[in-house]
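From: lab user (bench 3)
To: helpdesk
Subject: output format question, protein + heme C

Hello, I'm new to running complex predictions and I'm not sure whether the block I got back is the full result or only part of it. Here's what I submitted:
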Amino acid sequence: MVLSDALAGGRRRLAALACVLAMAAPALAVEHPEDIPEGEGRDETFYLCSACHSFTLVARQGMSRGMWDELLDWMVERHGMPELEDWERALILDYLAATYPPKPATGWVNPFAPRN
Ligand code: HEC
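Helpdesk reply: Thanks, we reran it on our side. This is the complete output you should expect:
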């Protein structure tokens, strides 16, 4: 086997590894509304928030309704999220509060453990 063959083989193995890693990622990343728990307002919440950033950013939070409310203010004031109609804001807050409530303080939490 000549050196260039060996190198090409190494690159193929690397490419295969990259594929495996890419396939493992969706377990952590939230890319479709179906990736998050069912509930009223799920699709609205998913599409609103993921217009600007990955929903993974949202899904790893755990907050009370009041804190989610403040977070929405912050998204509007600081990050240019459009103001929501009252009914829409309530729908989204209900979904967020029900789906991502404050996490119980259990000491060390495995950050790689699947949630929900
Ligand atoms: C108009 C754009 C926009 C929209 C819409 C938006 N965000 Fe954000 N959001 C941002 C930006 C910009 C940041 C900060 C940059 C980053 O971390 O990517 C951010 C950051 C965040 C963070 C991370 C805060 C931290 O401590 O790191 C959370 C949580 C969040 N947004 C939640 C939401 C939720 C929930 C929604 C939907 C209800 C939403 N965002 C909609 C622009 C937006």
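A quick orientation on your result: The mean pLDDT is 85. Let us know if anything else is unclear.
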